[in-house]
Design brief:
Oligomer: single chain
Radius of gyration: 30 Å
Number of strands: 20
Number of helices: 28
Helix content: 40-55%
Largest sheet: 6 strands, parallel
Shape: globular
């Protein structure tokens, strides 16, 4: 067969459920993701980042090259995930965007990136209006990030109906990707007879035109189902060569251009299957180098082979539910299978409760919004521009286009509240809330939190209290965990305590002030805090913070002046309160009374006064935001931990000769001595790794000491410390490549990280080595010593020639 007639398109659907607290717009610590802060951070380290810098190994096991997989595959990223990557993993974000730019240049403007429906809601279950907004937001987000219009759009869960395809076609989308079981019948364009392919037998090697009722059409690609399943579930990524051969197994030796295409969750490549990104990189390189197929994005293939056939789809079908779209509204029997015997009867009442909330919001919203906005629903569609850029200039442009009249400050707040209400009203339909096994799961609690935020905004923007009806509906959904109860109980336990308002933010800032120094202007998550008259006092272990604050919601522009105070009496005894400004006289009384009681060290009176001045508006250490609570506890425990460390260090030094003697006699250390040695050695390792220039000889000595005492080095506890030390050493080398000591230190730190195997992320040193080897990172007169540079390459596992 002539070279170039086979094309390969591996599609990765990269997506994570939104995990941000709806009131903070930030992800709070998720302990299940340890040692990382949260699951986004962990999966970025295991998958998204490694695919931007994937290793290809030579026969001798050394690194032959590092490649950006995103340039050679087709991919879509959830807009909410890209938003997180942009701010929390900027190097990976740049790698994704740059991959599309470079591939677009190579393929005549046809890039590998596809758009996605905005927040991964099941589009066939959306109202017609929501379908439009989800598609428009997804396309606008894509244009904002990739600098071009999207040619294709990935449908969340590939869930499809004709109305959704009509929306895509009307908005200029050329194609989408579906599972083979979503094709019902096919025929040659212009022929009369249809061929039934409902059993999944559709020929996936070519595109199909989908005729639509309006007279429009859209193109559908169908991926190879069996090979895609093998990637996801049959460990095909264990070996790159086997992966490549399996990909090509379905190719035929006919004359026309043919597309070999698979589609899986992108997280298969590194997160679900460790080193899956390496198998992907190897397979792509092998297929291309052997001339067996050319990696090509869908849009570029479409230019080479326009559809000659048309297809009728199976409406209301998806790729992950054998029953169509029932997984997101019914107890269809589909689940993760992790909990045999559980049911998902909770799905239907959950969706019904949210549908009623949606309808109640929309019925009141349109009339209220029409008084402020020209074309309320058009304004909602355009609000994505503000979501993507909340600068004053962006807001001004939005109001100029969509405000019904020149808005006052109150009007601006009202419009933003109305639009934020709609944003959260849509976010509460994120598909993950129904995908998993139980009502009490974190993904389902997340969609309930979005509903809770919508309820709160509806009170302010519409003057409606929709929570009672929501709770009534949630009470009809029951968890499989008896302790969790029904949806109402879960909402009251998990959602209502998470709700905050501007007064609450005042109390949290006051509590933070007990442990951190702030400028007159600061930011607490999405809230701007101005200290108009605020100070902190200290007496022994006790601290008092109090004064006047101006709190402004950075999303809705709502602003409130509050009177706030916080009291810490040592250990975990903390209380803080805040209330809307009570007037100068009442505030002065609060400051005076609390101040005098603090001077007298009258602790009972202090507590009584806090309760009196902030009735029902107080919080304790337990109710602080999770990350702030951890930070406060760390500060509270500093002296306690320091004291314990000194005691254990003294014990270790005192008994070190005995411990060495026991080691020489091959006598196991008693548990208490081994625990003491473990604590002290880990503390010393953390301290040394945290220094500006870690002494690798000292690190090696500490590891040897641990070996002598048969103390296991806990790599999970130390991995992030090693990571920071290596990344810091990279920064020092990049700042001055001619600094031989800095380069030597980096090499030795990399050698140290291999034994014990800390498994750190090496993207930063790989990038540094590549830049130095090409001469890209060295300013004039600051070139690295060739011999030391060769050692760096060897330490990183690269094939390196003679220095």
């Amino acid at each position: 067969m002539p070279r170039g007639r086979r094309y390969l398109c591996i599609h990765g659907h990269f997506y994570q459920p939104p995990r941000e607290n709806p009131w903070l717009e930030a992800i709070e610590r998720q302990d299940a993701a340890r040692p990382y802060h949260d699951w986004n951070e962990r999966i970025e380290a295991e998958c998204y980042g490694p695919n931007a810098a994937a290793r290809i190994l030579a026969a001798d096991g050394r690194i032959e090259r590092v490649v950006n997989n995103y340039e050679r595959i087709s991919f879509d990223f959830g807009p909410t995930l890209l938003s997180w990557l942009e701010f929390h993993a900027p190097a990976t974000y740049r790698g994704v965007i740059e991959a599309d730019r470079r591939a677009s240049a190579r393929f005549g403007g046809h890039g590998p990136a596809m758009a996605q429906g905005y927040n991964h809601t099941i589009l066939p279950l959306c109202s017609p209006r929501d379908k439009v907004t989800q598609v428009r937001w997804g396309l606008a987000d894509f244009r904002h990030r990739f600098g071009r219009d999207a040619e294709g759009m990935w449908l969340p869960e590939t869930a499809v109906d004709l109305e959704t395809l009509e929306v895509l076609a009307r908005e200029g989308v050329r194609f989408t990707v579906l599972a083979p079981n979503q094709a019902r019948r096919v025929r040659r364009i212009g022929d009369g007879g249809w061929t039934d392919v409902a059993n999944g037998s559709v020929d996936t090697r070519k595109p199909y035109r989908v005729p639509l009722p309006s007279g429009r059409s859209i193109v559908a690609f169908f991926y190879d189902g069996p090979t895609s399943r093998a990637v996801a579930f049959e460990r095909l990524l264990d070996d790159g060569a086997s992966f490549a051969k399996r990909l090509l197994a379905g190719a035929r030796d006919d004359d026309g251009p043919q597309l070999i295409t698979i589609a899986t969750d992108g997280e298969s490549y590194g997160h679900h299957h460790r080193f899956g990104e390496m198998a992907l990189a190897f397979a792509l390189r092998w297929v291309e180098r052997e001339g067996l197929a050319e990696p090509l994005p869908y849009a570029a293939f479409l230019e080479r082979r326009p559809p000659e056939d048309e297809v009728q789809i199976v409406e209301y079908s998806s790729w992950s539910c054998a029953h169509g779209i029932e997984r997101w509204r019914a107890d269809c029997g589909c689940s993760t299978g992790a909990n045999p015997g559980w049911n998902q009867a909770w799905r239907a009442p959950l969706r019904a409760a949210l549908d009623r909330l949606r309808d109640a919001i929309d019925a009141a919203w349109e009339g209220r919004a029409a008084a402020l906005l020209r074309g309320p629903w058009d304004a909602r569609d355009a609000y994505v521009d503000v979501v993507l850029d909340r600068s004053p200039e962006s807001l001004a442009a939005f109001f100029e286009r969509h405000a019904a009249a020149t808005p006052s400050e109150a009007d601006r707040v009202a419009m933003l509240e109305l639009l934020e209400l709609q944003r959260h009203r849509m976010l509460m339909y994120t598909s993950c809330g129904w995908f998993f096994d139980d009502l009490s799961g974190i993904e389902t609690v997340q969609v309930m939190q979005y509903a809770g935020r919508a309820v709160q905004l509806a009170r302010r923007a519409l003057g409606l209290d929709l929570e009672p009806e929501l709770l009534e509906g949630l009470s009809e959904a029951s968890s499989n965990r008896s302790a969790a109860g029904d949806g109402r109980r879960i909402y009251e336990r998990e959602v209502r305590p998470a709700m905050v308002d501007l007064e609450t933010i005042g109390a949290h800032h006051a509590a933070d002030s007990l442990f951190d120094d702030f400028e007159d202007r600061s930011r607490l998550y999405v809230y701007d805090v101005v200290r108009e008259d605020f100070d902190t006092r200290e007496d022994g272990r006790s601290r008092l913070a109090l004064g006047r604050l101006r709190i402004t919601d950075g999303l809705t522009a709502e602003s409130l002046v509050v009177s706030a105070a916080a009291l810490h009496l040592g250990d975990h005894n903390l209380v803080a309160g805040s209330r809307a400004w009570p007037g100068d006289e009442e505030h002065a009384r609060m400051v005076s009374e609390l101040g005098e009681a603090f001077e007298r060290a009258d602790l009972p009176e202090l507590l009584r006064l806090v309760d009196r001045h902030f009735p029902g508006r107080t919080c304790t250490l337990r109710s602080l935001f999770r990350d702030r609570r951890r930070r406060a506890i760390a500060r509270i425990l500093e002296s306690t931990v320091s004291e314990a460390e000194h005691v254990l260090e003294r014990l270790y030094r005192q008994h070190a000769p005995l411990m060495r003697y026991l080691d020489d006699l091959d006598v196991p250390l008693p548990g208490v001595l081994r625990s003491t040695a473990e604590f002290v050695l880990h503390a010393r390792l953390r301290e040394e790794l945290g220094s500006a220039t870690p002494d690798v000889d000292e690190l090696d000595a500490l590891v040897s000491e641990a070996d002598e005492h048969r103390v296991r080095i806990d790599v999970d506890r130390l991995r992030l410390h090693v990571q920071r030390a290596v990344d810091g050493a990279c920064e020092a080398v990049r700042a001055d490549p001619a600094d031989g000591a800095a380069l030597e230190r980096l090499v030795r730190l990399l050698e140290f990280s291999r034994e014990p195997a800390f498994g750190i992320d090496l993207r930063t040193p790989w990038g540094l080595y590549g830049d130095l080897a090409r001469g890209d990172a060295a300013p004039a007169g600051a070139a690295p010593d060739p011999a030391r540079l060769a050692k760096l390459g060897e330490a990183l596992g690269f094939r390196v020639g003679p220095a």
